[in-house]
Amino acid sequence: MPARRGAARRGAARRGAARRGAARRGGFTRGLEIEPGNACARAKGATQRSQCWVRARRIRSAAAVGGWDRKRSPVERLEPFWSSRRAILVLSLSLNMGDYYTPVPTVRPVSPFNPSEDAATLRSAMKGLGTDEQTIIDIITQRTNSQRQEIAKHFTQEYERDIIEDLKSELGGHFEDVILALMVPKADYLCKELNKAMVGAGTDENTLIEILCSKTNKEIKDMVEAYERLFDRPLAEHMCSETSGDLRRLLTLIVTGVRNDYSVDAGRAKEAAEELHAAGELKIGTDEEVFNRILAHESFPQLKLIFEAYKEISGRTIEQALQDEISGDLLEAMLTIVENVQHPPTFFAKRLHDAVAGAGTEDKTLIRIIVCRSEVDLESIKREYEKLYDKTLESVVTNETSGDYKRALLALIGGP
């Protein structure tokens, strides 16, 4: 009996070694590191490798059940058990945003966190003669949005006061704009920005495009619900009344939530790329409807596959094709989608540069991007900004702003 158990253990060890060898040959040693162009993430760093190794083991287990044909492409191999393993693949593919980069925020949850204590400190900073702006900056810029909502709730419960109204009465200028932007839920803040872009004389299409064309379906859904709650009017209806033509059709598709955030299919990517090629370069004139449909419906990872397939088919990048085939605000909207598919930090670094370049500063854009990306990837954007423009985002903000406004922005971006 002991000899049999020893043989069984040795057999299990040999099978484990074989499985590990197959895993390495299959590209799982670095966390689902599948060929470029197949919409799979490359996790970097020891922690990410260990996390992805767990995911890889789960995927291999599924493969053992559903069959694993090594002659098929990596994405095709995953198809038989795609629906049952969607949650795993969502983690592995980083489906929220395009280039499967690792987003690095500058604002993270504070721990330990005491909302009652923060509320009391903020009350003291605004009570009596004068205002302690530095204390307001230190607390509000160093808490996440969900933590700020807890502080606001405790402030109302303990003092029977609205913290937003108190802040409005104590602060002013762009400093007030930054602090109030931080104190409301992100979807509410973005809806207010959309509303400002559409009310009054003229429409700020650049703001509509930046906000709507860079978001996932979940973010769009949150904004649609918040907009109707805040303004008693559907976002799609208001937007349709303020835009026109193909831009209106593209933005309407985005707002109505047609994008499938979880769809990745290498075969369909080539077909869609051929459709785009036929609708543009191979056609006299351009069929904008085809471009609208594909760019608004497909997930960001799927669009990345489509853009790579397009380059293989036509020999040109999708950006080059769009610049030749499309113009005006529609071109701006489509390029925004493309840049957010390829690498979101690059898009937002360019937007920040546009906001501070030339005469004057677009403070609304500067505030909106720094506030909204601080919990997402502002550290990544800072690095990209320095790489693109050979100067730090901190130095630019220091030169373009002043006073408490400057100190609040620098606190968010992690500047001195």
From TrEMBL:
Gene Ontology CC annotation, any one: vesicle membrane
Pfam family, one: Annexin
Keywords (A to Z) from UniProt: Annexin, Calcium, Calcium/phospholipid-binding, Repeat
Keyword Signal included in the entry's annotation: no
Keyword Cell cycle: no
Region (Disordered): 1-30
Signal peptide: none
Comp. bias regions, Basic residues: 1-23
SMART domains: ANX (SM00335)
InterPro entries reported in the protein's UniProt record: Annexin, Annexin_repeat, Annexin_repeat_CS, Annexin_sf
Gene Ontology MF term list: calcium ion binding; calcium-dependent phospholipid binding; phosphatidylserine binding
Homology family: Belongs to the annexin family.
Domain remarks in the Swiss-Prot or TrEMBL record: A pair of annexin repeats may form one binding site for calcium and phospholipid.
Name this polypeptide is given: Annexin
